Amino acid sequence: MSVVALDQLWVYLSGNPLLSLLVTLLAFMVAVRINRMLGGTPLVHPVTLAIAMLIGFLLLVDMDYATYFEGAQFIHFLLGPATVALAIPLYDHRERIRRLLWPLLLACLVGIFTAVASTIAIAMALGAQIETVLTLAPRSVTSPIAMGIAEQVGGIPSLAAGLVLLTGSIGCALGPLLFRVMGIRDPGVQGFTLGLAAHGFGTAHAFARIGAVAGAFSGLAMALTGLLTAFLLPLVVRAFGLG
Amino acid sequence: MSERCDEHKGAGMPLIMGMSVLLACQFAGELVARGLGVPVPGPVVGMVILLLGLMVLGRVPSSLRITGEGLLRYLTLLFVPAGVGLMVHARLIGMDFWPIVATLIISTALTLAVTAWVLERMQRRYRRGETR
Q: Is the ipTM of this complex over 0.90?
């Protein structure tokens, strides 16, 4: 019986999807634990923490992103069915949503316009490159949609996905603070606002921290924002003379 | 362990049923989006399709609820693989680091504030109009 050399074992394991799948789950669990230890503060979002730990891990063991993604794509794939599943909370709260349809639609349009216009204006004023500006533009939309939009207007799809995530964690950190300052207590309003400005992160936050009603409104906002932004953003980009 | 056996004895394979429904809706959504050439992702169209289906059916089947709510509970985990992709763009992010950080923070705060304010005002007015 011969013991296989450790470095040979590593070559085998690091080329195997199993490893990246496992470290992704472990990093997420550890990140959630750390976040809980810090009192569940939204300032250190578990996802941002998990991403930072994983990037550190990949750099440490010298694994490139493509190899990592071969395993992690099994988790990534579930984003599709999870997006479809948002129909369930929407259905559960259909009556309340129907009653408030017009206020919700109007708030959504104003919110999208604020998000896109302020992003482009601030980024341009601070001297970011055009490519960066166009990649930032769809940042408040859930990542699969944002990637499609970025590609369409001339940004970088994979960077757009990352910026969307940062937006999500920033939204979750700022949201509760702003609601307190503005005196907004209605869970529906809180959820809708989080879903619009912080997409899936906001929706997850609304479900976990505020409740099912907030979660449903958040899911609605996320879906509506994605749909409308896909159509509106190219127009706003053109209005800024970038298209 | 006995739980797992019971699951097979009963009519349901709830996770498999639920997942099949979700994937079928996503697939249909993908077909519609591609077929009509609309720039909206398939899963979003799939969500609309599932919502219409639930409205026609008039209830949420328990298999679908178990699977769907399970997925939504871990929604944030699903973003991790894409987020690690930020490492690929380290150079570009480095070049525009401060504009990106400032834009993300200021614009997100602005979006949150404006949306919450508009909805709160509109909702109040709407309710008053309703009770009249």
A: no
